[in-house]
UniProtKB/TrEMBL annotation:
Pfam families tied to this protein: AAA_31
Family matches, as PANTHER family: P-LOOP CONTAINING NUCLEOSIDE TRIPHOSPHATE HYDROLASE (PTHR13696), PARA FAMILY PROTEIN CT_582 (PTHR13696:SF52)
Annotated protein name in UniProt: Chromosome partitioning protein ParA
Highest taxon of the lineage: Bacteria
Organism of this sequence: Pseudolabrys taiwanensis
Entry-linked InterPro entries: AAA_dom, DNA_Partitioning_ATPase, P-loop_NTPase
SUPFAM superfamilies hit by this protein: P-loop containing nucleoside triphosphate hydrolases (SSF52540)
Function: Involved in chromosome partition. Localize to both poles of the predivisional cell following completion of DNA replication.
Span of domain AAA: 33-213
Amino acid sequence: MTDTIDPPEAAPAEPQVVPFTKPVATAPASAPRVIAIANQKGGVGKTTTAINLGTALAAIGEHVLIVDLDPQGNASTGLGIERKQRRTSTYDVLTGHAPMRDAVIPTAVPQLHLAPSTMDLSGLELEIGRERDRAFRLRTALHNINNGTPAFNFTYVLVDCPPSLNLITVNAMAAANSILVPMQCEFFALEGLSQLLKTVDEVKKNLNPNLSIHGIVMTMFDSRNNLANQVVADVRQFMGKQVYETVIPRNVRISEAPSYGKPVLVYDLKCVGSEAYLRLATEIIQRERAMKAAG
């Protein structure tokens, strides 16, 4: 978590010293599955995965909400939501100034909604770092999301996390059923994974005992690159079945789509990137069914 600076008149205490107060966990029967897309490394495809996985899930019949928790707001921009449209943001929700339902807006993709982000979110830790419920703001905000007016019927919530293990990411992990970890097919792919897994263990121990690793998806894969093939092999050897069979290729269409404010499945449905995300969505649904059967 990032350090905070106390104002001169405040006592010199770290925000995380204040004990957590857990909210009452009484989720309704229709509660959606919450998947946090997290990796403290930047540039590994978190936002791209959130946008395109959300679109793919919607395309196969799911009702999806993407919660943009990155102050840069790239998921919002990538879905064509201009800044003037972000009247209520996830910053307003996590600071307690608005309910999540007020932040939810439809996208151009049927059955896909978004809770947008703004740069205000970068100051969240300074504002709520000493609050007893600081790690549970997102969980509380998503509680009963499907109840009320207008009526929502979300089956999945995908949380796009910032590239750091700060209070925002901890909020996502405390609210999530599971974590999806995008990893770039590069030499340093495994660097930092142990720290992420350690953070997940800490969150399980102290905040969310039901949290699990849903899976690891390898991104930006170039089959012509021997190093990329070796990285995928190494990660599969290290993490076993937690690595999805689907690998997201390095694809020009995937890179171009955000500049048009569209998911790649809308920008070019038949490109290899779109096909990969559809396969990933199918694989995730299959894992969900297996997890429910096992539980």
